[in-house]
Amino acid sequence: MVLLLSTTTPPDHGTNFTIEKANQLQKPSKIIFLDDNIITNINEVLYWINVNKIKTLNVAGSRESNCSGIYIKAYEFVSTLLEKRRTEE
Fold this sequence. Notes:
The protein has 3 helices and 3 strands; from the N terminus they run E-H-E-H-E-H. By secondary structure, the protein is mainly α. The chain has one domain (about 1-89). It has a 3-stranded parallel β-sheet with strand order 2-1-3, with helices on one face. Helix 2 (about 40-50) packs across helix 3 (about 70-89).
């Protein structure tokens, strides 16, 4: 899963590399724009996890030093995602 701050903020070099490698290795990948509705995003990711039978989730994205504001948005998203996943089990 790749977290991007918004559709207008391009991914950095490392994030692009991660996306390319996932595609190259034919691994399921999902790009999430953190400025979209958090509930919609979480529901989409939970569905994607279930459909693809994801057991280990790699979370990638730009670092705070390259993309101001992404840390707190990513933290909130992943925390909420994990909480919802735990309550669904």
